[in-house]
Amino acid sequence: MSDSAGRLHELHPSAVETAFAWFLRIVAAYCLLFGMLYWVRLIGVYDGPMWRYDLMPVHWQIASVMLAVFFPFAAIGLWMLSSWGPVIWFICAVTEIVMYGVLPDLFGSRPLIVATNIAVALIYAGFRIVLHLQRRRAAQ
Hints:
This protein is an all-alpha fold. It has helices at 2-11, 15-43, 58-79, 84-102, 104-107, 111-139. The protein is elongated, with a radius of gyration of 19 Å.
């Protein structure tokens, strides 16, 4: 009887697990949007001083190409709730934090992007801690 109750619990995720899945999918949409924005810059649709890849300084070329590839890849992993999705997102977030927070003379200052990445990381950590405590409590 307890075995079937355990299987029933596996089939019905908790409210925290459901909220975590929705959170990851919202972050996936954010990643897809930012990936598209970096692609727009790379293909020359961006209306700004560095509007084409060949006109960008080398540091922007490296960052743009990396983030244009990694953000959509992170979006796929986050949307599928894969374990590697948050890892790829973390690489993108650290890259943007370094770009806009540590090296603002090269990339410009974008405190909102830095704050958003830090907030998402803290919310993610909070979800993981709550899920760990919930699973530990259920195991006892």
